[in-house]
Design a protein that fits this description.
It contains three helices and eight strands; from the N terminus they run E-H-E-E-E-H-E-H-E-E-E. By secondary structure, the chain is α/β, with parallel strands linked by helices. The protein has a single domain, classed as 2,3-Dihydroxybiphenyl 1,2-Dioxygenase, domain 1. The strands form two sheets. It has a four-stranded mixed sheet. The model has no long low-confidence stretch (mean pLDDT 97).
């Protein structure tokens, strides 16, 4: 059995919050757009990574995902985000830290989702 991709579903009370984080801050692109439908939804993608974003107030109350994005140049990612989207830096991990397990990390978050940016 072979799996080729993991595609998370993330629920927001207001999908525009997701677009600010993923499109504006992290430079994902919208690949499928149903943002003007009764149940706003879109598929975003960047470098082969795909995420499904949904607007659903009830499910957003129940689900607060956290995941990691691995990069080969954490300093470049940190410089871009800390310059252009400072408000997303997580208060407990707002600088690049070398962890005891050998990874460099910093974190960002919005009202719904936590993302740890990591370089091994």
């Amino acid at each position: 059995m072979t799996f080729t991709k993991l595609v998370p579903n993330i629920f927001y009370a207001n999908i525009n919050d997701a677009l600010k984080l993923f499109i504006d801050c992290l430079d994902f692109k919208i690949e499928h757009d149903e943002l003007k439908s009764q149940a706003p939804f879109c598929v975003i993608e960047r470098n082969g990574l795909r995420i499904n974003l949904f607007e659903n107030k009830e499910l957003a109350k129940e689900h607060h995902p956290e995941f990691r994005l691995v990069t080969n140049d954490i300093e470049e990612v940190y410089e871009k985000i800390s310059w252009s989207h400072t408000k997303f830096l997580h208060p407990n991990l707002n600088q690049i830290i070398l962890r005891p397990w050998g990874a460099k990390e910093f974190a960002i978050m919005d009202k719904q989702t936590g993302i740890i940016i990591q370089e091994w």
